[in-house]
Design goal:
The longest helix is centred in the middle third of the chain and has 17 residues, at 109-125. Helices cover 39% and strands 17% of the residues. It is α/β, with parallel strands linked by helices. Strand 6, helix 5 (142-153) and strand 7 (160-164) form a beta-alpha-beta unit. The protein is globular, with a radius of gyration of 18 Å. A nine-stranded mixed sheet has the order 1-2-3-5-4-6-7-8-9, with helices on both faces. The two termini are 29 Å apart.
């Protein structure tokens, strides 16, 4: 392990895969970890599937400190040891639930989510208490898709699920029917209460593709229906009595800005603070 600010860097290998894959868990416990060791309640624990853990950890810790909440949250950021910024090829492998033509290696989200459950959580539990009622999973874009996929198939793994700008367009919207299936029957009604937060930037689905400086990108965004799909997922999941679903359309935000703003809104909502979820410089 190597020290990182008030946290630590752990490198884990996925031995179940044909090729080695490492997923460092960058944790920032600060006084949250110290409080647990003194007999106080375990901290809220949020795992981030952003794969840009350097960016996320620094931003979220700054936000928590600015709101005097750093003592309440242990942040676990998941990333790659050879990546400083976003690793786009690996995201399309590890955050997509199904394989599609033209994206070699895609469709391995299920395997990675199992890896997090079997390897990452136990590793974190060695140093910090894990309270199932205080754990959250966050992801943006393809990470948001993976979050909703995990909620649909393994809702007991976390007590809160935060999906920012989920890429529900993937594989012709295959995850959407899985969400519908998840809220049907008695199993959803008997589920333990969950907090589900879905956010999306208002600019992620342009109303008029002709009024833009980049018509090609605007057309792609229009096809992906980011806002409509997020709203639809909200409608579906709200049918489950056990899910406390919060949907937020982030005014003026594009796909990039929705990363931070979606995360900050989810944290504010989860921790019971006023949802002034604007980025902290």
């Amino acid at each position: 392990s190597a020290e990182r600010a008030s946290g630590a860097l752990f490198e884990l290998d996925d031995e179940t895969r044909s090729r080695q894959r490492s997923a460092p868990a960058v944790t920032d416990g600060g006084s949250a970890a110290g409080g647990a060791s003194q007999g106080k309640p375990p901290p809220h624990i949020m795992m981030s599937y952003n794969w840009d853990h350097q960016h996320v950890i620094l931003r979220v810790v700054a936000w928590l400190q600015a709101h005097e909440l750093a003592h309440r949250v242990l942040v676990v950021g998941l990333g790659y040891p050879d990546t400083v910024a976003f690793n786009i090829p690996r995201r399309f492998e590890d955050l997509t639930p199904s394989a599609v033509a033209g994206r070699a290696g895609s469709g391995q989200a299920g395997a990675f989510l199992d890896f997090v459950e079997a390897r990452v959580k136990p590793r974190i539990a060695r140093d910090y208490p894990l309270d199932p009622a205080r754990t959250a999973l966050y992801g943006h874009s393809l990470g948001g898709l993976a979050v909703l996929f995990d909620l649909a198939h393994h809702p007991a793994r976390f007590s809160a699920y935060f999906a920012a700008s989920p890429s529900l367009w993937w594989d012709d919207g295959r995850v959407m029917p899985q969400l519908q299936q998840a809220v049907q029957g008695d199993s959803c009604a008997r589920s333990t209460p969950k907090t589900v937060i879905i956010t999306v930037g208002a600019k992620e689905q342009p109303l008029n593709t002709a009024q833009t400086d980049n018509p090609e990108r605007a057309a792609k965004l229009a096809r992906r229906q980011m806002v409509a799909n997020a709203a639809r997922a909200n409608e579906i999941l709200a049918r489950c009595p056990a899910f406390d679903v919060d949907y937020r359309l982030l005014a003026g935000a594009g796909h990039g800005a929705a990363l931070d703003r979606g995360l900050f809104h989810a944290l504010a909502r989860w921790l019971g603070r006023a949802a002034t979820a604007e980025p902290t410089p």
